Amino acid sequence: MLLNVLAAAAVALVTPHGGPLTPTATHLRASSFSMAGFGAPKPAPKTLEEMVRDMGNRLPKDPAETRCACGSGESYAACCRPFHVGDQQTTTPEAALRARWTAFAYRLPIFIIDSTDKTNSAFMKDRIKWAKRLSKTSMFDDFDFSASRLGVGAVEPGESEESVFMENSFTLQPKAPMGAAPVRWAYMCTHTGCIYIYV
Ligand SMILES: [Zn+2]
Q: Is 170 part of any domain?
């Protein structure tokens, strides 16, 4: 039985003329294209979650032992983390504000996206593009959140029954002192006045 199987396999590897099986021209063309990368299957596009993971975050290593960046005095695990991981929904404007502040502090663009209304001017339908834009320009990478402060103010009735206004304040501490680096600016002055030329 085993011998028969081996014999059948041997037959399959020879041409009807008895010579060894060689790849046809078509096969050769296909394989050379593959080698050049043309025929190689495209890698699946990254999901939003994969992309954001690659962007990196500033999450505390020990959420139960780290005070939440929103300034509540509680640990991150007991304060804003349940909102970030989706275990809880924010039910007060203050919680929503704190969770968003902390999402910027810890670099969590998906939470920023998910907690932004579609009427907001920053809203984008393409969540991947939006996350890329946030990561590039709006995650406050130049600021030290441990030295930045969020001030939560009073809530007033908003424009509809479901909306409110909040009087908030914040200070953002730049990592590098602003204006400390020497700069060389050029101005050109003529009889019509002085204008700025370049940095
Ligand atoms: Zn918090």
A: yes
- 3-state DSSP assignment of residue 53: helix
What is the span of the domain harbouring residue 134?
A: 48-174
pLDDT in tens, 139-181: 999 999 999 999 999 999 998 888 999 999 999 999 988 777 7
Q: Give φ, ψ of 93 to 5 degrees.
A: -60, -35
How remote is the CA of residue 132 from the centroid of ligand 1, in Å? 25
How far away, in angstroms, is 111 Cα from ligand 1 center? 14
Tens of pLDDT, residues 74-85: 999 999 999 999
Tell how far the Cα of 123 is from the centroid of ligand 1, in angstroms: 24
Task: Let me know if residue 85 belongs to a domain.
Answer: yes
User: What domain count does the chain have?
Assistant: 2
Q: Which residues of 97-118 are buried (b: 16+ CB within 10 A; e: fewer)?
A: bbbbbbbbbbbbbbbbbebbee
**Average pLDDT value for the chain:** 84
N residues, the chain: 199
